[in-house]
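User: I'm putting together a teaching handout on how multi-component assemblies are represented. Below are the sequence lines for each component of a complex, exactly as they appear in our records. Could you produce the 3D structure of the whole assembly as structure tokens, so the students can see both representations side by side? Please keep the chain order the same as the input.
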Amino acid sequence: MAEGRLLDELARLLGATGFLCGDQVDPRYASDWSGCRGELPQAVLRPADTEQLAAVLALCYAARQPIVAQGGRTGLVGGAVPATGELVISLERMRSIGAVDPQARTVTVEAGATLQAVQEQVEREGFLLPLDLGARGSCTIGGNIATNAGGNRVLRYGMMRDLVLSLEAVLADGTVVGGLRTMRKDNAGYDLKQLFIGSEGTLGIVTRAVLKLQPLPSSHDAALCTLDDFSSALELLSLWNRCGAGGLSAFEVMWGGYYEAVVTTGECSPPLPPGKAYYLLLETQGFNPPADRERLETLLGEALAADLIADAVIAANNREIGAFWAIREGISELLARLKPGFAYDISLPPDAIDAYAHTVLTQVRDRWPAGQSFAFGHIGDGNLHLFVHPGPGDVAAGPRIDAIVYEEAARFGASISGEHGIGVLKRDHLSCSRSSGEIEIMALLKSTLDPRGILAPGRVIPASHA
Ligand SMILES: Cc1cc2nc3c(=O)[nH]c(=O)nc-3n(C[C@H](O)[C@H](O)[C@H](O)COP(=O)(O)OP(=O)(O)OC[C@H]3O[C@@H](n4cnc5c(N)ncnc54)[C@H](O)[C@@H]3O)c2cc1C
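Assistant: Of course. Below is the structure of the complete assembly, with chains in the same order as your input.
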């Protein structure tokens, strides 16, 4: 329980719109998309700017009050879910988006701005923020930075780490660090911003960032293909890379069971019938619309002739491109519908993906025959997502499914997180992918920057090293 005196001081500092407590605390602040349910926090702190956030943290630090930062609560590893006794710091009032700087090719935003709002604003000014993921309408730039989000276009533009030019963050004791620098080249000592990217709110709270933009492509095409085997997908990717065609911005594979589950519950007729082994969604972006389209058609023609793909349909317009992506992003509907459900985010060399998926799905289906399990992912980046629904009511199945997924991950030399992070759900499996020495360094960094351990305690670093 937070001390009454601390809560009074926080309420005075933040005012009525910035401080929610008691009945004002909506249940949504107690959970995220991972399915983890936490405690309803005693108070939700909603600072209006960096200065207020710094003052909030200074008060919490002095009182040794644990807190957890929240963006859009779309995280899939439970990192933003408040544990007993924690107060929530929500960035939802800090959502301003500055004008694009066309010379520096950057935009400066507050951490609470949603990804989609930033994407739309910079597009209106002729630029592209390349980060894109299914939760775009709710997830925030702060959450994207804190989790080093990946998403649909990593193979072309990189992960969030590659898109952040500089940032400002507040440390546990209220010290503001970093700055909003727009220089592309800056080798003045250690690159401290990297500490806050991907550290899931355990080392500091990100308040503002300067993001790198790309010119807005003038061509946008997508194709949906069926494949009889997974190796054909990899051969097609090699063909694309070998002929230097460029332009490829997404290369997503859906296993047949996933495709079928999404299209048979959807309202629209599917672009290709279900029943095939694999479905590939590939997307291109470029700057020469007729030539870019022709190149896609030529490559798909070659792939058909070489029996790499069995069937293909090219989107005729943006609406059809959206319909293809709606199938790939149909996972949000499955996550919401199939409870309990357990989501996994494994990264491994592309040529090991199919064998790994097969091994895990076979074991899971044998063990939970009444359940459903699906595979899909950003295969161009070697990132496989698995979703396992053990069957209705089997809420205790999680640790047993985890054991299968992570033991096989260790055996295949995989990473247990390609993009979602560690949070609480994967914390005790971190040693599958990181050595004891590496985890010790993480713990040392944590205790140096947050010696009282008030920022998101119990996340990322396993209890054995905390
Ligand atoms: C349908 C769906 C699709 C998704 N697809 C992808 C995908 O393709 N790729 C991908 O990478 N992820 C994906 N995700 C996961 C999720 O959207 C990302 O992790 C996203 O970056 C989280 O942003 P958020 O604002 O919702 O953060 P939250 O869920 O609120 O928080 C996530 C973590 O960041 C911390 N945090 C939040 N804001 C800050 C801040 N300002 N400073 C410091 N720490 C902070 C929290 O404490 C927590 O640990 C998907 C999720 C859903 C539901």
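A couple of points students might notice: The CA atoms of residues 319 and 325 lie 10 Å apart. The pocket of flavin-adenine dinucleotide is lined by residues 32-33, 68-76, 79-80, 91, 111, 133-135, 139-140, 142-144, 146-147, 149-151, 200-201, 205-206, 331-332, 419-420, 423, 456 (CB under 6 Å).
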